[in-house]
Amino acid sequence: MKGLRQVALGAWLLLACGGVGGANTAEAPWTLEHCIQTAQQQHGSALAAGEEARAAEAELRKAGSSLFYPVVSAYSTHLRGGIEADQAGSVPRNTGTITDEQYLMTAEVTLYDGGVQKRNVRMARAVRDATLANLRRETQALELRVIESYVQVLRARHAIRVAQQKLESAQAQKEMVLARRDAGTAAGVDVYPIEVQIANARVEKLGAEAELRASGSALRNAMGLEEGPVPEVAELPETPAEPASLDACIDLARASRPEVIAAQADLERERAVVALARLKSRPQLETAARVDRGLGGSTIHSQWLVYATLTWSLFDRSQREESAAGEARIAALEARYRQLLKDIASEVTQAYIALQGARARAEASEVSVAMARKSLEVAEARYQLGLAIPIELVDAQIARSTAELQAIQLRYDAFLAHARLRHAMGQESLIP
């Protein structure tokens, strides 16, 4: 009994420690990689695209199963009948019965179909490739959506921090003004601009908190999660990696964008459709074989046959028009494909220019923040010496908070611009 109690106590301690560890893990900040992986595993659009890709793979296997793969089946027939005949001028009467029972196992295989399977497989493979490209496109679009929502959460949290700093700074300035008023070196009305600044800081903080809740909801939705508390998210790298040259980015985009691969697959599928239509207008030879094996009390023990069928469509207007329609669709797809390459080059160029501009603005904003902080320190020092009025404190405080918020926005703008460039290039991972 003592041993059982010790085992039970040990198990309880193990569960308790595991529970604490699990709680700590759950409270750890969500990384961007974790959010993207969760979205790919749980978001409905990603799951649906994955199922469509699996369906296309199954259709490809189906198209390749018409030749050399036997169709095996079992069936039974039960026959019972009667015979009536005239006998020497008498009325017809039943002269016999017919009964038969067959239990057969049948295997039938197509040996040659004139090239139909080859073209069907070509079409199914093109559909499969287009579906896989759509899966990649859906995955990349979902990843970009998660990144944008993730950045919005970080922006809102930093906006709350800046608003809190602004509130604390304004309250400290209020104490400074009240101290000078009590000392008789400042007028009582000097505190009013500071009170307005405190009220504005509280309003800004409330707005940032509301934005955080909305951004958290958007992030959870992008991840395919149910509504819940705003998650804690980990900070992003300070500066994204430098991209390759513009020409290299365009070449990579034209080679790897899912839209390009899907357009090429659509062209291949339509060419296979035209090839099949032309094949049907020529003589078609099909050969097959069949074997039956009797089971149980069947009167047929075994039988086999090999047959060949030659078909030649001498005139079929619909078949001819189908080929003409296919040629027109191919021309249309080729025109769209050429325009797609131009569109991709334009998208990459615009994203590249946007990234360069965002990086330059983000670097310049750091200087603005440093200058605004220094200006606030100078204004507070001047006010303590009686060389400045309260409105100068307010202006300096507004300038600092504005510069800090702008720096946050520009830093995350640069991160998003980098992710959008990678999206325009058709990269598998959009994380800079």
Structure described in brief:
With 432 residues, this protein is of the alpha+beta class.
Summarize the structure in words.
With 432 residues, the chain is an alpha+beta fold. It has one domain (30-70, 105-424): Outer membrane efflux proteins (OEP) (Up-down Bundle), CATH 1.20.1600. It has nine helices and four strands; from the N terminus they run H-H-H-E-E-H-H-H-H-E-E-H-H. Strands 1-2-3-4 form a four-stranded antiparallel β-sheet, with no helix packed on it. It is elongated and about 140 Å long. Mean pLDDT is 83; it is low at 1-26.
List the helices and strands and how they pair.
Elements: H1 2-27, H2 32-42, H3 44-63, E1 71-85, E2 93-112, H4 116-182, H5 191-222, H6 246-256, H7 258-280, E3 284-294, E4 302-311, H8 317-384, H9 390-424
Antiparallel strand pairs: 1-2, 2-3, 3-4
Helix pairs in contact: 2-4, 3-4, 4-5, 4-7, 4-9, 5-9, 6-8, 7-8, 8-9
Gyration radius, in Å:
39 Å
Low-confidence stretches: 1-26
Distance between the termini: 60 Å
Number of contiguous helices: 9
What global shape is seen?
Answer: elongated
Q: Which topology does CATH recognise? A: Outer membrane efflux proteins (OEP)
Oligomer: single chain
**Strand percentage, roughly?**
5-15%
Going by helix content, strand content and strand pairing, the class is alpha+beta
Helical percentage: 55-70%
Number of domains: 1
- The CATH level-2 architecture is identified as Up-down Bundle
Query: What is the N-to-C order of secondary-structure elements (H for helix, E for strand)?
Result: HHHEEHHHHEEHH
The biggest beta sheet is recorded as: 4 strands, antiparallel
